[in-house]
Amino acid sequence: MPEQPAAPRQLKLGAFMRPVSLHTGAWRYPGGWPDANFNFDHLKTMIRTLERGKFDAFFMADHLAVLNMPVAALKRSHTVTSFEPFTLLSALAGATERIGLVATASTTFDAPYHIARRFASLDHISGGRAGWNIVTTSNPDAALNFGLEEHVEHGERYRRAREFFDVVTGLWDSFADDAFVRDVESGVFVDPERMHVLGHKGEFLSVRGPLNIARPPQGWPVIVQAGASEPGRQLAAETAEVIFGAAPTIEDGRLFYADIKARMARIGRHPDSLKILPGAFVVVGDSLDEAEAIRARLDAGVHYDSGIASLSIALGHDASSFDPDGPLPEIPETNASKTGRDRVVALAKRENLTVRQLAQRLGGFSGLEMVGTARSIADTMEAWLVSEASDGFNIMFPYLPGGLDAFVDKVVPELQRRGLFRTGYQGTTLRDHLGLARPANRFFPD
Amino acid sequence: MPEQPAAPRQLKLGAFMRPVSLHTGAWRYPGGWPDANFNFDHLKTMIRTLERGKFDAFFMADHLAVLNMPVAALKRSHTVTSFEPFTLLSALAGATERIGLVATASTTFDAPYHIARRFASLDHISGGRAGWNIVTTSNPDAALNFGLEEHVEHGERYRRAREFFDVVTGLWDSFADDAFVRDVESGVFVDPERMHVLGHKGEFLSVRGPLNIARPPQGWPVIVQAGASEPGRQLAAETAEVIFGAAPTIEDGRLFYADIKARMARIGRHPDSLKILPGAFVVVGDSLDEAEAIRARLDAGVHYDSGIASLSIALGHDASSFDPDGPLPEIPETNASKTGRDRVVALAKRENLTVRQLAQRLGGFSGLEMVGTARSIADTMEAWLVSEASDGFNIMFPYLPGGLDAFVDKVVPELQRRGLFRTGYQGTTLRDHLGLARPANRFFPD
Ligand SMILES: Cc1cc2nc3c(=O)[nH]c(=O)nc-3n(C[C@H](O)[C@H](O)[C@H](O)COP(=O)(O)O)c2cc1C
Ligand SMILES: Cc1cc2nc3c(=O)[nH]c(=O)nc-3n(C[C@H](O)[C@H](O)[C@H](O)COP(=O)(O)O)c2cc1C
């Protein structure tokens, strides 16, 4: 039973989770859980709070190598290691009832038969709550862990991803929904006429099928995409049902939203069949001052060595000789990304930051952020929603579990009061929560 | 805290699980659960019964294709599709406290970085209860699902498996047990000196590392092997800690046991560091007659079409024209396996079976079986144990959940009364249950 969209349009909320938080300084925050990467009980507590807050989904990032960063930053980062997504989300499926479970999986370094099986199995185990965040893996170090000397080229990665999607969805459709007859009397368990052998042979992949799993409860697990490049956007417009966006401002959000929905219109997809959810780092306090103090305390947890590494990368210029407590000096233009550099210079000016503060800010988190009270945060979210800059957000919490508790206890009720967010789950599957239709089986359309 | 072996030596018991049972007729047995392949609640109920029975481990088979069988058999078989092992066992980890969780994974059709991560993650989630059943995948249809035109040759599969094992265990050792410092004061999260970059380049695999997971609680998840060929036995003697055997008689069991332990002695491994657990199909009744009636009723659930296909394969001769209700006719010798043929002919003679009964027996289950009362079954198990034909068994249940309930309620107490089986778990990890030492880290031996 798909959820009825209320008037006004409601936000969709995902939680983009790293066990300790995405902020690099979070593990040092008082009351944080520095050991959460391998502490399953902590994860269970967190996802239950998210479910209490009626979140659409728990999103799990994934990386196929220790993140490539200088040793000075590596040794200070809690983001180096954590649970593998399928094992974690399956275990969390058993600890929850309704919340969606979105796992990241790479089309560059895995096989479609494995991916199709695991997501189908997770969808069965969770009663229709699985989603697949398709990534092509940009970290070149991953290639070295999978037998390659160098990374697969960007365009090739995306061509393979497109074909991979076709194979995986074709494998999910191996059995008609009514294929499993289980007629004890006649002794017929499965009707072979309702089983399809895919027989795919394409540019990159050759996969016979059928999948050895019944069709998932959702038909297909929900398709998520986060690519930002031209081929990434096109793949999303053609295949995704959720985009995990990275727009840093509402203006960028509107441009991205319009671009994707226009691409969809060109290929005849209904705009509502894809939800755009930019990542948002949300710090909530009872006053703006309190929120800013939390933010400053978090940033202070970023060690100068790792902050300065991030700043150097963003500037395309070695920042280690700058005076930490002085303002950002004028620096010459370089070949590095001009957009990134300009953004950093503007940020330093706007907030009047020292080199140290700037380094710590960049070393912590530097995308879209909402720092304020429940009311001001709800105002911002509402503005994004009504101006078609997004269909909701993927929330990143500043530190865990405190930052998550604050969001669920303060921001969620404020959004509910305004009619901008559900007060209870209406359906049981992730498709129900997101208002997405169950896809027909391409081989057994009836 | 490893369990103290009692005197007399105690049995180790695994449960070799297919959700509906391994017996092909089981889904038609009254009170069976024909829908268990994708019914997570049923699986939860079963594993909780196993844990109540103090089983060492739940073993999950795995196949990377729909099993290759004639359509006449396929349509009547419940073994075609079921959950994927990592998603299932992770979900079951959350529903249990002590029982081990052994997943089958192929070294021929997967990448060591993925395998190392998933087992490490399952070990963390379950608090040290994971085991890896290493298979090289004998079903040639699997190759067609992974981009190959034909199957990888047997010897090459085993050479790759050996190298794969070295890489996976090397990746598990990426971090010293004390690598994660998490010193909030100084801001050091991980000590890079206690992280090892594997840098493996071998005949089949090239993997840089490190793994992006902390060392598993058990050091390494328990290594299981089921290969029966010469290279399969050698791989087991070199690497395995549990062998899932297939000896059909106690004499075969003793020969196999002696062979493996001799291979271990030759390479300097202690014999107790590997437990040999043959698969045993156990049908328990309150009397021998009752047990045999259960068995006959199960076999009667095997449809004649699929039974006759199994019989033809076993004989190497088309049996479809035989009189179903007559005795097995004399058949000419063929090129097919002589051992298999002789075994079938002997079985028909010994039990005076008609062609139909023989076909149904073979179509159901045809390896080592124990059909009797709790006492007679315990007698048989004790005989295997004391004569060094095995260190325990992997139990296969005739139908579920009833056959499992009967085993736990009747056979387990009888074994416990004789001091042949634990009455409670002494430790918390699968290594503890099996009495296996935690391996040292090869890069950080201190
Ligand atoms: C919010 C967000 C989350 C992402 N999560 C992952 C991830 O978990 N794993 C991964 O390999 N890449 C991840 N990416 C990277 C994207 O998949 C993509 O590679 C990147 O945005 C660059 O875009 P492009 O691949 O289209 O060039 C993420 C990107 C964004 C914006
Ligand atoms: C009890 C038992 C269970 C097995 N389970 C699996 C399995 O789950 N998946 C698989 O691919 N092979 C499985 N096998 C097959 C073995 O891994 C192996 O391929 C087979 O015994 C033939 O031996 P060989 O590979 O040494 O020639 C199993 C074998 C036995 C005896």
| Count of all domains of chain A | 1
Order of helices and strands of chain A: EHEHHEHEHHEEEEEHEHEHHHHEHEHH
Q: What structural class do you assign from the helix and strand content of chain A? A: alpha/beta
CATH homologous superfamily assignment of chain A: Luciferase-like domain
InterPro entries (chains A, B): Diverse_substr_monoxygenases, Luciferase-like_dom, Luciferase-like_sf, NTA_MOA
Organism (chains A, B): Kaistia soli DSM 19436
Family (chains A, B): Belongs to the NtaA/SnaA/DszA monooxygenase family.
Protein name (chains A, B): FMN-dependent oxidoreductase, nitrilotriacetate monooxygenase family
List the helices and strands and how they pair.
2 copies of one chain form a homodimer.
Chain A (H helix, E strand, L loop, with lengths): L11 E6 L22 H13 L4 E4 L10 H4 L10 H9 L6 E7 L5 H15 L3 E6 L5 H4 L9 H19 L7 E4 L4 E3 L9 E2 L4 E2 L14 E4 L4 H10 L2 E4 L4 H17 L8 E10 L3 H13 L3 H12 L22 H14 L3 H10 L4 E4 L1 H13 L5 E5 L5 H16 L12 H5 L12
Helix pairs in contact in A: 3-4, 4-6, 6-7, 7-8, 10-12, 13-14
Bound molecules: flavin mononucleotide (2 copies).
The site of one flavin mononucleotide has 16 residues of chain A, from loops.
What does this structure look like?
Two copies of one chain form a homodimer. With 446 residues, chain A is of the alpha/beta class. Chain A has one domain (12-287, 368-434): Alpha-Beta Barrel (TIM Barrel). The first copy, chain A, has helices spanning 40-52, 71-74, 85-93, 112-126, 141-144, 154-172, 230-239, 250-266, 288-300, 304-315, 338-351, 355-364, 374-386, 402-417, 430-434, and strands at 12-17, 57-60, 100-106, 130-135, 180-183, 188-190, 200-201, 206-207, 222-225, 242-245, 275-284, 369-372, 392-396. In chain A, the strands form three sheets. In chain A, strands 1-2-3-4-9-10-11-13 form an eight-stranded parallel beta barrel, surrounded by seven helices. A two-stranded antiparallel ribbon of chain A has the order 5-6. Chain A has a two-stranded antiparallel ribbon with strand order 7-8. In chain A, helix 7 (230-239) links the parallel strand 9 (222-225) and strand 10 (242-245). In chain A, helix 3 runs parallel beside helix 4 (112-126), helix 7 (230-239) packs across helix 8 and helix 13 (374-386) crosses helix 14 (402-417). The longest helix of chain A has 19 residues, at 154-172. Chain A is globular and about 80 Å long. Chain A starts with 11 loop residues before the first strand and ends in a 12-residue tail after the last helix. At the A-B interface, helix 3, helix 4, strand 6 and strand 8 of A face helix 3, helix 4, strand 6 and strand 8 of B. Bound molecules: flavin mononucleotide (2 copies). The site of one flavin mononucleotide (FMN) has 16 residues of chain B, from loops. Chains A, B: InterPro entries: Diverse_substr_monoxygenases, Luciferase-like_dom, Luciferase-like_sf, NTA_MOA. Chains A, B: Belongs to the NtaA/SnaA/DszA monooxygenase family. Chains A, B: FMN binds at residues 62, 104, 154, 158, 229. Chains A, B: GO terms for molecular function: monooxygenase activity; oxidoreductase activity, acting on paired donors, with incorporation or reduction of molecular oxygen.
